[in-house]
Design brief:
Pathway: Carbohydrate degradation; pentose phosphate pathway; D-ribulose 5-phosphate from D-glucose 6-phosphate (oxidative stage): step 1/3. This protein has helices at about 40-55, 80-90, 95-105, 120-140, 165-175, 190-195, 195-200, 235-260, 265-280, 400-405, 410-420, 430-450, 465-475; strands spanning about 5-10, 30-35, 65-70, 110-115, 150-155, 180-185, 215-225, 290-295, 310-320, 330-335, 340-350, 365-370, 375-385, 390-400, 430, 455-460. By secondary structure, the chain is α/β, with parallel strands linked by helices.
Length: about 500
Amino acid sequence: MGSGCWTIEKRSNLRNDSLSRENGSVPETGCLSVVVLGASGDLAKKKTFPALFNLYRQGFLLSNEVHIFGYARTKISDDELRNRIRGILIQGKGASDEQLEELSKFLQLIKYVSGSYDSAEGFQLLDKEISEHEVSKKTIEGSSPDLGGWTRIVVEKPFGKDLDSSEKLSEQIGELFEEPQIYRIDHYLGKELVQNLLVLRFANRFFMPLWNRDNIDNVQIVFREDFGTEGRGGYFDEYGIIRDIIQNHLLQVFCLVAMEKPSSLKPERIRDEKVKVLQSVLPIKDEEVVLGQYDGYRDDPTVPDNSNTPTFATVVLRIHNERWEGVPFILKAGKALNSRKAEIRVQFKDVPGDIFKCQKQGRNEFVIRLQPKEAMYMKLTVKQPGLEMSTVQSELDLSYGQRYQGLTIPEAYERLILDTIRGDQQHFVRRDELKAAWEIFTPLLHGIDNGELKPTLYQPGSRGPEEADQLLERSGYVQTHGYIWIPPTL
């Protein structure tokens, strides 16, 4: 995982590779092998293994069918890896004896292989372990020697650093795997509210006539963190906030907000429409970009003293098509800011003929809060209760914690791993989509890399550079003063 790649492989004596059992797990005679590269790393420990465990607990991965192989450079034993994972999976949960037994059974499914990433020896050992496991399964279950099945490779971002490196990486992977086998993962596509975007847009009549340049003034897609690089400075400085967040996570959300209605819910039809949107984006203008770097970023000993890497960026994208001509899409991301959140904010135009004189209070907005405290709410103007005819900003609110009590929202990696097993590529990035995304941002990134564009210093705990708010204002965004959304409580 730390090396940016892992695989899921199924061997079965069934010719039908669909997930035939009602609960969505693999067929009873199947043998599912999951290989996690970088298994000793932070991402695997915090995201991948917990997701696999949750799928196991829910019955999507069965102990008589699945085996998990971890691979990394670290010289540790099977039990040492299991103990590392155990601490994450039961931390602070006060697990019962039954849960601990379930965890113990899951950990026994994990086998660890140590090896390097730049030589064949380690991978040959890994292949031997997988083959021995599959042969043992075949022997135990009496499977046919003519094994059917599939292999799928899951590639973590970053997918290169610019257009050329991304295309080179795609060519190298393409020499070994066909496109239907390749799952380029962006965990934002697994988030509950992101997955809800297509339903919201295309299953609700009242959104459809409003979702265009005639009614929408601007759209913001925002990612904010209230902490800095925190020990990841060396890694982060190689990429920066645009490569780390905007070019992938926020751009994926942008596609779902702006795309046309697909002809069906087949993954390829949805991905076709995402590509069309990206290919309609105009070149980014220098005057519609604001870069920032928080004060203290270069104090990290792993960051060069003269680093030009932005930790904050606001970028305006403009789509040249009939629906969105003239509507700015403002993508904003930053670290060490005054709050932590990710949201989509669709701001509508002013009401013509404002007889209530309420425009100064703010515009209508539809807000989708991706994290934390998942919610969607419509900010609108209503009459202030009382004898006077005065207006006030309020909201129509759907907060998931209140509306869906007792339901656990799955983690993004759970969804995407399950989609990989099911062979559903809807929430993964296709090669031509990746190319179109890099075509948008590569000129800007090269300008930053060459020192032609410089980040402005901003203070940790602030909103970011003042120039970013000025760009929002120039782009037509009208800030609401005096209104704060308060998540409802039970």
